[in-house]
Fold:
Amino acid sequence: MASPPPLTPRPPGLDPVAAARWLRRVPSTSPWLHEWVGERMAERLAWIRRQPRHWVSWSPLLAGEAAHRRVAQRYPQASVWLAGELAAATAARWGGGARPRRRWPWQRAAATRAEAEPPRVAPDGVPPDAVDMVWANMLLHAAPEPRALLMQWRDWLAVDGFVMLSCLGPDTARELRALHAACGWPTPAADYVDMHDWGDLLVEVGFAEPVMDMERVTLTYPDAERLLADLRQWGRNWHPARHPTLRGRGWRQRWLHAVQQGLPRDGQGRLLLTVEVIYGHAWRPADRAEDGVVRVPLQRLRDQLQQRSPR
Structure:
């Protein structure tokens, strides 16, 4: 497979309007793949000694509710900010009975701070230098403006705070891409970014010591219907060159038949699909003067001006 093009302010092969629409969609349940990746990413927290006092959970309804809870249990004394397009929807769902409002005395004594204090949602965003960790699971590959998003996360972090992220890599669905090319159809998915480009971008926006790694997972399916159900749960086709109009039932049946006949199979006859998962973490260093100029986040200046302005 050809190497993906370098990352620009907007990822190549990604329709920003379609991707943003997907990120605003409220799922009924978190995708199982996101939960599995979130569990794998949570294991990497054992590498980091810093214990966050405050952290950001980015769109946990889509990123993985169980993964969010696993991180909250790891840092029971830390407070949580909810951020991302689904922050308000998350707070509404969790505030509607997900956490018990009454406890017996022994239950109250055993309650952790994470259970006692509900996550906070900031209408104007998280304040600068306010958190020690940003947790962003399986969402960066759909970000319409990844450079601006990473800069925002850096501004939220205090010095020596860190970001934990994961996303899909360019080898994802390579069997399905080859099938579409052989049939003369548009590509079935966006052109996901290589992990080295993500590491370079982290450094460009001001993070330090990025650590990136990747794993390829081969999923097996009994039939094309089950594969299609998973693809719909994980996302949509955000490529600008996708089919420009809606497809009918005839197209769906053609696609299912082509996948059933053309996708590789294992020794037991199950369909094979590759998923490449990228993991990364990086630190927010102290602001340093470059050529006599100290770079300060714009949001921090706005907050300082608001504090000084008369009421």
